[in-house]
C-alpha cells in the first residue's frame, strides 16, 4: 500500500524545478545531456583541497595573496593584534626572567662578554681581562664581540 | 654579546645600581624577543593565535632557555637570530616585500653572536627555493639586496674588530678543537642520561610527533625547522667540549630549542583531534611532560647551575695518582651518563637543603617588590594574551554558508590549530 503524504512547500518548489529541468533536458541532445550529468557529478564531488581540509592536512590560515602584486593582504587589524600578542608574550617571559634573575655573572664566558663591553666603553676594545681562575690557562685574550669561542 | 651588554652597562653605570643587575638582563631581553618571534612564526605557519601563543611559554618556561637567562652566553642571541631567520623565511614565502631583510638580519645577528652561524643558520637558506618559487626568487632582485645588506655591516665590524685585536681580518678561535669522535659527541648530546637535549628539555619530546604532524601539512616549513635543529648536534658533536662546560644542559643546542618548542606546541595542540581512545592518554602524557619540564626548570634556577660542575670537578685532598684519576673518571661518568648524578639530580637534591646561596637575586633573604611584580606580570601577561587571542566570532551568514575550504571563515577564525 502506498502512503501519500502532503509535500512541504520547499519540496514542492524543488519538484517543480526538477520538472522544468527535465523539460529542458529533453530539448538537448543525448551527448549534451551526458556532458551535463558529468559536470554535475564533478560539482558534487569534493575537491582534493576540500578533502585535505576535512582531514586537517592543509594550513588553516593560508596567506591571502592579491592577484596583482602577490603581497599579503591580511587586515591591518589582525597584524596589529598579532604584534600586541607577541609583545605580551615577550613581556610575560621578560617578567619571569627578571623574577629568577641572579644579578651576578659567574661563568667564564659570561665574564668575558661583560669585560669586553666594559672595555669598549673605556675605549680600549679588548684590554680588560676578566678575573677568573681560568685566566692562566687561556691562550689568548678572548674578548671579541663577534668571535666564536 | 658585548654589543648587547654595552647599553645596559652604560645605563647601569649611569644609574649606579648594584653591580651586574642590569647587564645580566641582556640574555632575558634576547630570549623574550625570541619567544615573541616564535609566536609570529606560529602565525605565519597558519596556526591559531592560541596555539602560537603556547610556543612562547613552552620555550621560556619548560626548556633550558630559563636557565640560559641567568648567564651571558651568546646562545640566547643565536636563538633570537634563528627565530628571526624563521619568521623572515616564512614571511618571504607569503610574499611580503620587507621580509628578505628579516632573513638577512637574522643571519647578520647570528654572525655577530657566533661566527658558526654562517654554517648553522646559513644552511636554512638552502631551503629557500622550497619556500619561495625560483621564478619569484630570480625576479625579486631587491629581495636579494635586502638579504645581503644587513650582513655586510656585521662582516665589516667583525673584520675591523679582529684586525684591531689580532691583526687579522678573520676572527681567531681560542683553545679548542674538533677532536671528539662523532658518535661519542652525538651520543652525549642526544642520548646520554646526564647531558642530552631531551633530558634537560623533556617537553620537547613532543617535537617528534609535532614534526610528523606538521610534515603532512607543510613540508617546506617542517624541513626548515628540522634542518635548523639537526645541523647543531652534527656540528658540535666533534667539538672537544661538546657539552659546553659550566652550564645547564647541552649549551650549544640551546638555539635549537626555539624550533623544537614550536613543533612541541603544535603536537600538544593536536591532542584534541586524536581518536577518542587516544585522546585521554595523550593528554595525560602532555600534562606529565609539563610537570616534569616544570620541575627541571625550577631545579635549573633554584640552585646555581655551576654547583654540580664543582661537585664533578672536585678532587679530595690527599688523593693522588691512579686513585685520583679513578675518582675523577667516576664522577665524570656519573655526571654525563647517569640520571642519579647528573646536574638535574644534583640540583633536586639541593633544592631544600644545603643550598646556602639561593641564586635568585629578588628572593634572596625574602621576596623583594621587583621579584613579586615580576612573578605577577609573568602570570598575568599570558592570561591577558590568552583572552586577547580568542578566536574571533564569524558572522552568522558566513558560519552557516561558508564553504569548508582552508581559506574559509572557519579556517581564518583559528578554531582549529
Describe this entry's structure for a reader.
The complex is a heterodimer of chains A (149) and B (417). Chain A has helices at residues 9-27, 30-44, 48-54, 76-99, 108-122. Chain A has 149 residues and is mostly helical. Chain A folds into 3 domains: 12-53; 75-103; 105-149, no CATH class. The radius of gyration of chain A is 36 Å and the shape is elongated. Chain B has 417 residues and is an all-alpha fold. Chain B has one domain (2-302). In chain B, 65% of the residues lie in helices and 0% in strands. Chain B has helices at 2-15, 26-44, 49-61, 65-68, 75-93, 99-113, 117-120, 122-125, 128-131, 134-139, 141-148, 151-166, 182-190, 197-200, 207-217, 219-236, 257-269, 276-302, 305-313, 321-337, 343-349, 369-388, 396-401, 409-412. In chain B, helix 2 (26-44) runs antiparallel to helix 3, helix 5 packs antiparallel against helix 6 and helix 6 runs parallel beside helix 12 (151-166). Chain B is globular. Residues 398-417 of chain B have low confidence and may be disordered. The chains are: A mainly alpha (149), B mainly alpha (417). The interface between A and B is large, with 71 and 116 residues.
Helix percent band of chain B = 55-70%
Structural class of chain A: mainly alpha
**Low-confidence parts of chain A lasting 5 or more residues at pLDDT below 50?**
1-34, 41-73, 127-149
Q: If you average the pLDDT of chain B, what whole number results? A: 87
The strand count of chain A comes to 0
What number of domains of chain B? 1
Average per-residue pLDDT of chain A, rounded, comes to: 58
Q: Biggest sheet of chain A: strands, sense, closure?
A: none
**In this structure, how is the largest beta sheet of chain B organized?**
none
The class by helix and strand makeup of chain B works out as mainly alpha
Helix/strand order of chain B: HHHHHHHHHHHHHHHHHHHHHHHH
End-to-end CA span of chain B: 36 Å
Largest interface: A-B, 71 and 116 residues
